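fwd from M.: "can u put these together and see what the complex looks like"

so here's what she sent:
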Amino acid sequence: MIELSNIVKSFGKQTILHNVSLSVKKGEVVVIIGPSGAGKSTLLRCINKLEDIDSGEIVIDGERLTRDKKQIRKLRAEVGMVFQQFNLFPHLTARDNIALGPTYTLKQGKANIDKIVDDILFKVGLLEKKMSYPGQLSGGQQQRIAIARALAMQPKAMLFDEPTSALDPELVGEVLNVMRDLAKDGMTMVCVTHEMKFAREVADRVIVMVDGRILEEGTPETIFTNPREERTQSFLRSILQKN
Amino acid sequence: MDFHIVWVYRHLILQGFLVTVEISAMTIVTSTIVGLIAGLLKTSKHKWLISPIIAYVEIFRGSPVLIQLFMVYFGLPYLGVSISMFNAVLLVFTLYSGAYIAEIVRAGIESISNGQREAAMTIGLTYSQMMRKIILPQALRVILPPLFGWYISLLKDTSIASVIGYTEMVFQGQNVINMTDRPFEVYLTVAALYFIISYPLSKFVDWMERRRAYA
Amino acid sequence: MNWFTPIDNFGFLFMGTVNTFWITVVSFVLSFLFGSLLATARYYKNIKSTYTLSTIYVEVIRNTPVLVQIYLIYFGLAEFGIHLIAVVAGILALAINNAAYLSEIIRAGIVAVQNGQWEAASTLGLSTWQILYRVIFPQAIRNTFPAIANQFIAIIYGTSLLSVLDVRELMDRANILNSQTFQSMPIFVFVTLLYYVVSIFVSFFLKWVNRRYFPSVQKG
């Protein structure tokens, strides 16, 4: 579904990603963990072409990405993205946030859109907040609407960039529940997160990134109970201490 | 002091008042169009388009409008291009005001966080859809108060057109002074007439700013 | 057509630029002092008389054109036997005008200083005036420095209006040169660019002052 090979990305003189390769199968849930500054978010943003890569190759669903604007837009329509800061459109209601993509990118009719919006709002459990503005919602609700907005595009895969990091602890659960349901439904997902319990439960594969490289990868079982690398162990220790 | 003499020549001052309102209204419309386009282009990624726009905005914000008036009104005929006084005034104030509005628009657009742009991109919107549906509606709340504040400045700045002889309110006032030799009364009356338009507008701008602060 | 007219007469135009510059500086200093007083009067809303007077002043000045203010001071006052020299009337008008704008900038700066600063300073036993002028005021200036710098540059442009009183600043010199040589376009284009260069130069200088003296508000 998603094939990354030898991705190199640098900002100025600083290289953020060194030759990163990663392959995600259809229906697979991949969780990327690692200390901050490891390049996790950058990798995610490269998949969606929010960042240009210096070299390497990205293939999504059999199609190799070029710099062609039309192709990039098509890809973005096919791959949903959820941000740490939600990035909901504050001047639009929950309904309009969700309806925007289907209206302009998928060019759906109004009746169809109403159905899509209702279905998705029901899925994330916020049907009653349909006409609310983002400012009237809690952080957890905003992030669920942001997920709904991405889902409304009927994406082939979803990217989550630390979706719960900006939330108060008591609001994390509701967002993770939505993500859990999505995984159960067979959605292809790549998540950058610090929620180790979620990773353990939901991930098919956990990837540990350090200093712009993939340090090791494996099933959650292996990574969490029997990591190969010393740096993985120390990272996991530091996370556990924080919790 | 003798304000009676002003009353005698009220039709001249009123005529000037109407011309001031007219040229202000016209340049508000034309320069808003110019400023909006220039401001939008300045935030676009097309480098080759931007440099002439930057030069235009820099020069017209970086020099007094009076010299700009002289440059166009006396300079163009020098190059063999005849231009009427009205057209010269309209052209100069459109370009001058457009340059300031371009900066207001640019600042408003750039105040919208990058996350909004990225979120719009991830749902596959085109650049123009993103601008029309996401960025501009939000930027407008930032742009409107300084924009209306600028309109007030523009209204007052049109008085400078009197220096090249454009018959707006200050110039008509000078006509009355030539006939009455009462500069104090006439200029005070002219100032009062500017105040009557400008003050309510400035209170409106204050209200807009307060509303934005609480929103 | 002679595009070298302004170059050939650069000395003449340069003297005008020098006059423009010192008129700007004097007007700015006066308007800054007066503007600070106005800002203080506008800040203390509970002292009704000074608050009302300063508010009326600021509103009247800001809602009328500076050109009319210049005419009023030069020609209007003459009606009452007050005959000012053109350059004095001009500087006075620019100072009176810009004081109103600067006072609003400074007042906003004072309002923006955190309450904790007042409390901290009063625990040190400073009087209200000492707090205002030693603690609050410097911070207000620092926070609003870019806006104050913009106002300085606005005064440069404002001085061009003094050409209507035949004050020998840059705009007036351009007019004189034009009436002597009739090389309108070369002269006015050159002088427009000259104003631009002066304003850029001043703006860089003020940015340097800001970095040099108020480093803490700068990023990085």
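replying to her w this: Chain C has a mean pLDDT of 93.
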